[in-house]
Amino acid sequence: MGSPRVSDIVSICDSLWPPAYAEPWDSVGLAVGDPSAEVSHIHLALDPMDAVIAEAKDLGADFLFTHHPLLLRGITSVAADTLKGGAITELIRSGIAQYNAHTNADSVIGGVSDVLAEAIELTGLTPLVQHSDAPAGVGLGRVGTLSARVSVRELAARLAKAAPVTATGIRIAGDPEVQVERVAVLGGAGDSLFDEVRATDAEVYITSDLRHHPATEARDTAHRCAAGTPHLIDISHWAAESMWMARAAEQLRERLSSGGMDVTVTVSEISTDPWTERIGQAGE
């Protein structure tokens, strides 16, 4: 077949990460680009930031696949001197299409939360929240079982070893010495799903972006039950989700190869975690 068109790549992506699996509030799919343009190089990254767009341009990519959307909330201008407008202008000038798979990639089997769960060796995975209009196994988050009980501290250390290094590292809320076996994970911001976690038998919940009030209220709620669960492990949003990018690239390469499409696929080497340094304090 040779070089496919943007529309062909969109069709492949939509089949791997069906837009129907996205949450109602989400924005997924092609945001920038001519569907009829040819594609020779797909570049994958978590975020469509300026540095990533420049990286894609330097590599000669003509299709930028990201997890997070470029356009999620409504904007009223795409002027080049605005944040979103500047990105769109640079993409168009550089001949780069931009597509994203967000919560649909979170929910699909083999997606973001599956990769996170596999990184800490969970088995017997089921969705934390089963998608109402999808086959069994599709949904947000995963709940699974460790091969043996370990302390929360040991589990956090296992996660730290598997995940990319970030300034904020891995944080624990709860008793680090408690032994756990059943674990819930959700790549990305997960403090909106505490009720769903409590409805499972998960003893610890691994997620990102845990804010002060939701985290303290979750632990206070845990203290009111005999088991004191779930304990919390917080991982950088970027670290939790960026591990999936290699899996997505592998899936794309396989689908392109089986279709006879000659396309280069690369994964960004740029960390888009916003935090660059952590200053230690006395007594640590």
UniProtKB/TrEMBL annotation:
GO cellular component, one term: cytoplasm
Keywords: Metal-binding
Gene3D superfamilies, A to Z: NIF3 (NGG1p interacting factor 3)-like
GO molecular function: metal ion binding
Residue sites binding a divalent metal cation per the record: 67-68, 106, 237, 241
Signal peptide range: none
NCBIfam families membership: YbgI_SA1388 (TIGR00486)
Subunit structure: Homohexamer.
Family according to the record: Belongs to the GTP cyclohydrolase I type 2/NIF3 family.
Name this polypeptide is given: GTP cyclohydrolase 1 type 2 homolog
Higher taxonomy: Bacteria, Bacillati, Actinomycetota, Actinomycetes, Micrococcales
